[in-house]
Specification:
Layout (H helix, E strand, L loop, with lengths): L2 H7 L3 H8 L13 E12 L2 E12 L3 E5 L6 H8 L7 E6 L3 E2 L5 H7 L1 E4 L11 H10 L4 H6 L4 H14 L14 H14 L4 E5 L7 H14 L4 E5 L3 H7 L2 E6 L2 E6 L1 H5 L2 H8 L2
Parallel strand pairs: 3-8, 3-9, 6-7, 7-8
Antiparallel strand pairs: 1-2, 1-4, 4-5, 9-10
Helix pairs in contact: 5-8, 7-8
The protein binds adenosine-5'-triphosphate and magnesium ion (MG).
């Protein structure tokens, strides 16, 4: 047995990988059709268990809605997936090979997990186009790309994204003068510029008009399939309009999971969330 082989036999899979290729995370491997595994996750803040033995599996390409009362742990769950919060126990894998608990926030974003916070964070002084241009540059020498010309491929990607988020007509408009809904779509566009495989979207329709909500439902639905979308939302009309599988979180754990019909008729869900 070579030295490498003998070392390998003493190490777990992820450790072996780190040893062999120190700086590059493995490619996303979704051969089992599951893009995200959260298992036995627990997080306490000052002794309070915000996440309590959470188990959650998201299939590649699905559009999953996560609902649950205030304080159920929905945002904290996203914080764990994106590396913002470290769990006390449990495991979090992106596909078969990527151990999220060993990665920093930027590494996780780089690996293909994009997150949209509730409040839009576009650059108000820049145009829609410039915002997308910056997002496309990612963390790679951002400012130099502002003076450099975009190549044809990047230009096409931006056009594609503009069409997807429905902002083609507003490409030269300053982001600061967009409506709240349009800012949200621009920010989703900026996420898409990074080409994520998994998109986490926290309360996307808060503050939107009915029409903007409808448009957002279409957008998120169209993104699923080629990407995976996890949406946290309180607005039940909106959830109903996009829902396939719905997961109900309560006190940091999964209380119920199923179709909208199953969830709405589940007495435990009615008691803790839908009843009021
Ligand atoms: N950094 C933190 N420090 C202390 N407590 C925290 C922290 N983050 C979250 N919590 C607590 O953890 C619990 C879960 O919060 P979380 O924000 O995940 O809930 P949520 O399901 O997103 O609620 P909402 O629907 O109101 O957004 C809450 O009781 C919250 O106060
Ligand atoms: Mg929240």
């Amino acid at each position: 047995m070579s030295m490498l082989e003998s070392m390998r036999s003493y190490m777990r899979r992820d450790q072996v990988f780190e040893f062999l290729i120190p700086d590059t995370p493995p490619d996303l491997d979704i051969t089992h059709g599951v893009i995200l595994y959260l298992e036995g996750i627990t997080v306490s803040f000052d002794g309070f268990r915000a996440i309590n033995d959470l188990n959650l599996y998201i299939r590649d390409g699905e559009l999953r809605c996560i609902i649950g009362p205030n304080g159920a742990g929905k945002t904290t769950m996203m914080d764990i997936i994106t590396g913002k919060t470290r769990p006390d126990t449990g495991s979090a894998w992106f596909g078969q090979q990527i151990n999220l608990l060993r990665m920093t926030e930027p590494e996780i974003a780089q690996a293909g997990i994009g997150r949209k916070f509730q409040k839009p964070t576009v650059f108000e002084q820049l145009t829609v186009f410039e915002n997308l241009e910056l997002a496309m540059a990612g963390d790679r020498r951002v400012w130099s790309t502002l003076v450099a010309r975009l190549d044809r491929e990047q230009q096409d990607r931006i056009d594609e994204i503009l069409e997807l988020v429905g902002l083609q007509e507003l490409v030269r408009v300053r982001a600061g003068s967009l409506s709240h809904g349009q800012k949200q779509w621009l920010e989703i566009g900026m996420l898409l510029a990074q080409n994520p495989k998994l998109l986490l979207v926290d309360e996307p329709v808060a503050g939107m008009t009915g029409q903007e909500m409808e448009r957002t439902a279409e957008l998120l639905t169209s993104l699923a399939g080629s990407r995976t979308v996890v949406v946290v939302e309180h607005d039940m009309d909106f959830v109903r309009s996009i829902a396939r599988t719905v997961t109900v979180l309560h006190q940091g754990s999964v209380l119920a999971e199923g179709t909208m019909d199953e969830i709405q008729n589940d007495q435990r869900v009615i008691d803790v969330y839908l009843g009021d």
